[in-house]
Amino acid sequence: MPLRALEGFVNSLLTMMDTSLQSPGYSCLCKRSKTLDVQYRKSSGKGFIDIVVDSTGLKVYGNGEWHARKHRATKRRTWRKLHLAIDATSHDIVGAELSMVNVSDGEALADLNIDRVTGDGAYDTRSCCEEVAAKKAIMRAPPRDNAQYWEEGHPRNNAVFMMHQIGLTQWKVNSGYHLRSFAETAMYRFKQLMGDKLKSRQFNSQHTETMIKAKAINKMTGLGMPKYQQQS
């Protein structure tokens, strides 16, 4: 919620609690949001760490509809790119990064402790593969349609070979690639619960806002996730 609305909401809660405390003012919240370090990650625990990654856009609005109609101006819309890394077992967000739209999808992989990562075709790049190889992890991303073999002995060559032999669809089934749907589900969960646009105007504040939302999502998933049982 916007910071002014948050200030009023917190003050109303404190009033209901019959305390003498008062929420920090809007100016204080605005300044603190630029430098606040939000710890949203949970411990990955022990064992095999399997994550799925994806990215999506979050809207940052410029001038509103009224301004566009009154002055016949084109409404300026800006986007930020949200990168999420999801633990395939617990569904927790273990990596989150907010960037400009021109930043590559490998950003969320930089500081993660992983054993295997699954992503879509956007992660089939040398930079992503090198980042994963440096962690001695396994990269599972579908090669592009016109994919060529890289240098001899590169792990990606196995995926390209199998794609040529059995086709991309069957490769996805055999490799377990469809686990990546957990990332799409996490994106849907994020946007449905937290919205698809950012309230803050400055990038540092937008980053803090996103990390707070990621922490809230992890709190919710920690309380419980739906369990599905196939009916005969």
From TrEMBL:
Pfam families: DDE_Tnp_1
GO-annotated biological processes: DNA transposition
Domain Transposase IS4-like: 51-218
Gene Ontology molecular function terms on file: DNA binding; transposase activity
NCBIfam families cross-referenced by the UniProt entry: transpos_IS5_2 (NF033579)
Record protein name field: Transposase IS4-like domain-containing protein
Protein source organism: Pseudoalteromonas citrea
